[in-house]
Amino acid sequence: QVQLVESGGGLVQAGGSLRLSCLDTERAFSRYAMGWIRQAPGKGREFVAAIDWSGRQTFYAESVKGRFTISRDNARITIYLQMNNVRPEDTAVYYCAATSTGVVRQVSAYDYWGQGTEVTVSS
């Protein structure tokens, strides 16, 4: 099983950048597709980005395409979410998650979740 720990959240001004990291402390995530899912205050969880086990395929929500980049380093058992040109509507708790299915855009497909890291974008 994977055990996911996120870091890198914080307060950032609109137009700025932030990089989130997610470490698998059980060193098992190389077999899984990995995703970032966010939950804004008062809203449900929303798919943001995902990457397949090899790192060769990436997937993005339309709202973040061209601004966010997901990547993974299997040797360092870490995935990243580089967030550029952030907007106030990106404010949310960001979760790292792992799925053994190919349905990476579906939030319910993720089997393992981190505790989340909070991102606040000020206008």
Q: Can you lay out the helices and strands and say which pair or pack?
A:
Blueprint: E1 4-7, E2 10-13, E3 18-24, E4 33-39, E5 45-51, E6 58-60, E7 68-73, E8 78-83, E9 92-99, E10 112-113, E11 117-122
Parallel strand pairs: 2-11
Antiparallel strand pairs: 1-3, 3-8, 4-5, 4-9, 5-6, 7-8, 9-10, 9-11
Describe the structure.
The chain is mainly β and 123 residues long. Helix content is 0%, strand content 49%. It is built from no helices and eleven strands. It has strands spanning 4-7, 10-13, 18-24, 33-39, 45-51, 58-60, 68-73, 78-83, 92-99, 112-113, 117-122. The strands form two sheets. Strands 2, 4, 5, 6, 9, 10 and 11 form a seven-stranded mixed beta sheet that branches. The protein has a four-stranded antiparallel beta sheet with strand order 1-3-8-7, with no helix packed on it. It is globular. The termini are far apart. 33% of the residues are buried. The mean pLDDT is 95.
